[in-house]
Structures are given as C-alpha cells and as structure tokens.
Amino acid sequence: MELSITQPDDWHLHLRDGDLLEGVIPHSAKHFGRAIVMPNLKPPITTTAAALAYRESILKALPKDSSFTPLMTLYLTDMTSPDEIKRAKKSGAVYGVKLYPAGATTNSQDGVTDLFGKCFPVLEEMVEQDLPLLVHGEVTDPNVDIFDREKVYIETILVPLVQKLPQLKIVMEHITTMDAVKFVMSCKEGSVGATVTPQHLILNRNALFQGGLQPHNYCLPVLKREIHRQAIVSAVTSGSKRFFLGTDSAPHEKRKKECACGCAGIFNAPVALSVYAKVFEEAGALDKLEAFTSFNGSDFYGLPRNKSKLTLKKAPWKVPELLSFPFGDIVPMFAGGTLEWEVSLN
Questions:
Q1: Does the global pTM surpass 0.85?
Q2: Is 31 a catalytic residue?
Q3: 14 an active-site residue?
C-alpha cells in the first residue's frame, strides 16, 4: 500500500541551538516543508532581532540541498511590548508569539506570570497585527494535580481570554485531554486551533511506567488517561479543520533524560509521520490524513499549501536504538521498535 500526500509542515517544533541544532535539524528537514520553531532557548528568543539571528543559525545548519523553511516565534514575557509585536510582524519572519506560563516546562522560567494583568496590551496589538498566540496550556500552581493542569488552564485562562479578545487567533499547543478537544470545538472555526503530537495520539500514561520508569516517554504536558487519548484520536481523524500536525519534537541528550531529574521532551522527528499514519490507519481514516498533516495548519496560519509531495509506504522498518552525535546520544521515540509506515520523498 502507498499513500501520496502533499508535503506536511510541523506547526510545533523544538530545534534547540548549537551542536544539538545541527544534529537534529536534518530529521525534520527531511520530511517537513516548514516548521513553527519554538523560542525557549537559553536565553529565550524575546525580540525580533533575536528571532532573525536564530533563523540564520537554522538556515546555516540545514543540509545543503534542503528547502526547509523555519517560521519564527517570539517568547512572550511580562515585559514584552506592543512595539515588539509591530516589529515582529514587519519582519515577515515571525509567525506567532509563544505563551509559556512561568515554570510550566523546559526553559519556561522567563514566561508569563500574569497574562491579563501584564500582557493584555500586547495581546491587543497581536489582534491588530494578525499574529497568533501559541499557548502552552497548563497552570503551574503546585496545588493543582499535574494531570488536571490543562483542564484548569482552559477554565481559568483560555475561556476568559476568548471572551475578552474574541478576535485573537489562538493555537492551543499539544492538546492532551477531552477537555481541550471540547474547548477547541466550542470556539469559532479559524479563530482557535490545536496542534496534536504523535505521542499524545498513540500513548497513554501507562507508557510512563510499563516495565519500569520510562524517561523517554516523559514529556510536558504529561501523557494522560486512555479516555483522553481516544478523544484526541476521534477529533483529529474526524476531518475537522481545527486540528493540525505539531510534533513538539523535543530533543535531549540521553544522559539528560536518564538521570535523577530527567528532562521533559520526546524526540519524535524521525518517526512522527509513520506514527500519524498508523493512528489514522487504525481509525479507518487514512483519507483524512493529508488534511491533518498538510492542509489544516497552513490554512489556519493563512499560508499557501506546499506544492511538493511525499509518499508513505506500508513497509515495516526498525527505529534505531540510538542516534549518535559528537556531543552525545539521543534516543528517538519508539527506539528499537518496528513501525509499519515508511516515508519516501518524491
């Protein structure tokens, strides 16, 4: 069996910087035409000038024959100004502003502490400039159970935000719950969308503990119950235009995952398309895969769809146990396992 689809884009990607960037970027550039690149570096990408400099670093790290296009983002802080939003839009290289609640995930310590009290003028300017807000939707209150943080964030932040600023385009990143599905579906189509990762479509929270603690299945937002996984699968395979591909591929060295305080993040760039195809096939929805991978995201962002094609072939292949680089090893998602769909470029 073969399936030819328009080349997908990745609407949520971590590329890091330095040696790690050079090591991982070929895996995304091989399959995806464009990617929304996350700004949570050290220091974070908080200005347009920094975003443009980071973009140049990415372009220099690409394989010579690659046509991959990085779409840059700004990291929202309590100090971000409306003028910075104007500069970002004018640059033509910045396509969104990322909201990390302070302390929610990797390198989020400089994130927002009071969205409505400190960032509202910036949000209003984003409406004027037609720049989407890309949201890591979890509260950071330690009194809220980690498995409930997305649900509480929707109730306390996102619902009021949509009511206060209905014109603001919002992407709820890496949704993990039926609560997020219901919220996205309740909003006006074209105003609120959601990215969905391979891991949240195919794994539930049992995957963190089967056969011992599994650090390479640890990501934030954390994997949820099976009922939530099923709700997300139903949403993305329904044909709804509100949901689109965002891998949240987040590489960390093996030694930083397998340690006393392991980093959150799953490196799925080499296997993402194979996993998405598996999920859609199992749902009897392969005819809806192309829209999810290749159309919905570009349509939401108001960008042209890609012209090139790639082919997914039903051919088993083994995922490497390790990807080795001069700086260390990275363990990919499904390391050592066998996947049923192989990607080939046309």
A1: yes
A2: no
A3: yes
d(CA 16, CA 14): 6
Q: How many domains does the chain have?
A: 1
Buried b (16+ CB within 10 A) or exposed e, 166-182: eebbbbbbbbbbbbbbe
Give how far the C-alpha of residue 92 lies from the chain's centroid of Cα atoms, to the nearest Å: 21
Mean pLDDT for each 10-residue chunk of the chain (346 residues)?
A: 97 98 98 98 97 98 96 98 98 98 91 97 98 97 97 98 98 98 97 98 98 98 98 98 98 98 97 98 98 98 97 98 96 98 88
Cα 219 vs. chain centroid, distance in angstroms?
12
- Joined together, the tokens standing for residue 73 give 């983002």
Active site residue: 27, 31, 98, 228, which one?
A: 98
Question: Is 12 noted as a catalytic residue in this protein?
Answer: yes
Q: What's the CATH number where 318 sits?
A: 3.20.20.140
Residue-number span of the structural domain to which 188 is assigned: 2-345
Asked about 98 being catalytic, the answer comes back as: yes
